[in-house]
Amino acid sequence: MSWREPSLGGLPSTSELSCAPERAILAALDASLVLAIRALKAEHPSLDAPDESSAEPLLLLAGSILASAASLHELIVGYEDLTWRMTYLGASPFYPPRVPLARAGAADDDIPF
Predict the structure, then answer these.
(1) Domain of 55?
(2) Is the residue at 11 inside a domain?
(3) What is the Cα–Cα distance from 33 to 28, expressed in whole angstroms?
(4) Domain assignment present for 2
(5) pLDDT above 60: residue 39
(6) Inter-residue long-range contacts of 17-23, CB under 8 Å, 24+ positions, other chains counted
(7) What are the CA-CA distances from residue 6 to residues 36, 46, 70, 101 (Å)?
(8) Less packed terminus of the chain by CB within 10 Å, N or C?
(9) How many structural domains are present in the chain?
């Protein structure tokens, strides 16, 4: 099993922070998670293709950190999405999720048509 690095979304705008200021630290935490994953993969290249027979304590802990970081990243993305929907779509958590340009794979802010 290989570990997929989460994609880092865009940073919240000033207006987004005025509605949900906690998103500032969550964006910083999310960026830190991506950097932690990169650092662990740089130190332990075998994390991309772990060998079941290898039971190095550091490798096992690094794998656990990667799994926890991936879970925390998904929670942050969910929180970001829900605050966006509640702020911009009439305070209902039941609207379909948005797909920010940074996550949709767009390279810039151009309108994709």
Answers:
(1) 20-104
(2) no
(3) 9
(4) no
(5) yes
(6) 19/83, 19/87, 20/83, 20/87, 23/79, 23/80, 23/83
(7) 11, 18, 7, 15
(8) C
(9) 1
